[in-house]
User: What shape does this take?
Amino acid sequence: DTGVSQNPRHKITKRGQNVTFRCDPISEHNRLYWYRQTLGQGPEFLTYFQNEAQLEKSRLLSDRFSAERPKGSFSTLEIQRTEQGDSAMYLCASSPRAGDTQYFGPGTRLTVL
Amino acid sequence: KNEVEQSPQNLTAQEGEFITINCSYSVGISALHWLQQHPGGGIVSLFMLSSGKKKHGRLIATINIQEKHSSLHITASHPRDSAVYICAVSGGSNYKLTFGKGTLLTVNP
Assistant: This one.
C-alpha cells in the first residue's frame, strides 16, 4: 500500500491563473477529504466525498473552487482565477469508512504571486 | 461549531523530559485525534480515541469526555520527537476533522 499521494507537491502561479491539484487515496478507501492549511494554523475542512458523491462543502469553498471524484477513486481540486489569499497547503486525506482514522497525503503547497 | 484549543502553543524540552500537551473542545464529539506534523507538511495520525487511554511506545493519549479534555504525553522525549502536534475532533455523520492550531515541540539534545 503506497499511502495517499498528491500532485503536484508544489505549485507557483500568478494571480488570476487556474490551478488543479490531484489526490490519489489509499485503494478502496471510500471517504476522501480536502483540507487547507495556512501558515501557523491548523488545517481547515474544505469538502469531502463518499465514493463519487460530494456530500459537504465548507463555506470556505467559494465559487472559484470545485472538486470532483469522478469514479470514486482519485479526486481533483480546481481553483479558478487564483488570488493571493489562496496561498496555502492543500491536504487530502482518505479513510476506509466513515469514522475511521484519516490518512493524510503530503500536501500540495500553492503559492500565488 | 466545535472550538478546539491546545496548550501550550510552543514547548521546548530537554532530551529525556516528560512532556504533556493539552487539548480542550467545546462540543460533544465522536472521537478525538492526535496527529503529528513534521516540517514540510506530512501529517501522521498518532491516536484516535473516544474514551479512556491509549498507549503506543512512548506516547500516551488520554481523554475525559465529561470535561471535554484530552492530553498527549511523551515519556523520555527525544530530539526526533520535535514536530508540531495537532489535536483534532470529529463528530456528526461527516466525520470531518476540526483542528486545533497545534503545539510546536522542540526537544533539545
User: Anything to note?
Assistant: The interface with chain B takes residues 31, 33, 35, 40-45, 48, 55-56, 89, 91, 93, 95, 98-99, 101-104, 106-107, 109 of chain A (CB under 8 Å). Residues 9 and 59 of chain A are 25 Å apart (CA to CA).
